[in-house]
Amino acid sequence: MNWKGVFPAVTTKFNEKDELDFELFDKNLQFQLEAGVHGIILGGTLGESSVLSLEEKGALVKFTVEKVAGKVPVILNIAEGATKDAIELARLAEEWGAEGLMMLPPMRYKTDHRETVEYFKAVANSTTLPIMIYNNPVDYKIEVTLAMFSELVVCENIQAVKESTRDLTNVTRMRNLFGDRYSILCGVDTIAMEQLVMGADGWVAGLVCAFPEETVAIYTLVKAGKLAEARSIYRWFIPLLELDIHPKLVQYIKLAEAQVGIGSEAVRPPRLTLIGEEREAILNIINTGIATRPTLPDYKSIVID
């Protein structure tokens, strides 16, 4: 697994019957691939993992693997409460054709240091799939500390971290302690360029779901050292990227996907689509961004070492 580049945490598309909408999902997927993304992550926060059945997760993985056809790796998120359930989902992910896992700490119960480390080790030791740990204590209440990462180095397939602590210094701390042992991918859209400049290897992105070209362009330009060009796009993008750090990020980003024609607003209850003043306010941000969308350089021709 090459944990570098832009990895969209794609949304799950639903139709009017609250069933998986594979046709619309594929439309968005093809836009991601055409933009040049480097991997696809299924069943994350944006993918509404907590309300997907096991059968739906399997169907999504199999469909995505078929449509991606080896162009980029397909990664499944694991967000379970019981260790045995996480181990079983890791086994199924491999069976379904996934090429990697993204893993949150245990859900619901707030594990301590020893419990968190043993949870990750148990799952890692049960599978051959490479793993990216999703470190998001702001939303999920358990921090995977540097001391924990020190213990997890013995698991060779724990290879990366989705760094969502909001602490920019963690990129440097991880590098100082572990060198290149762990790949570091930014998991918060609003600090992505900053983390990339400080040495992060990639970006697990949210607004990429609606704006894939702009997202990949920023990553490519930063890695090519073209910081002024990247900064110009990033400054335009920031009001949109801020939609990623709200509790209703799923509704906000799905509305953006609908506005650019590669998604719909449909969410699965208990989430509800936006209404009234809130919807109008978010639409104003999205439509202002669309109206002022920058002309991108030919980022696809840039070769990154």
Automatic annotation (TrEMBL):
SMART domains in alphabetical order: DHDPS (SM01130)
InterPro entries per the UniProt record, alphabetical: Aldolase_TIM, DapA-like
Enzyme Commission (EC) number: 4.1.3.3, 4.2.1.41, 4.3.3.7
Coiled coil: none
Keyword DNA damage found: no
TM region positions: none
Similarity annotation: Belongs to the DapA family.
GO MF term list: 4-hydroxy-tetrahydrodipicolinate synthase activity; 5-dehydro-4-deoxyglucarate dehydratase activity; N-acetylneuraminate lyase activity
Any Pfam family hit: DHDPS
Organism: Arcicella aquatica
Matching SUPFAM superfamilies: Aldolase (SSF51569)
Enzyme class: lyase
Protein's name in the database: Dihydrodipicolinate synthase family protein
Keyword line: Lyase
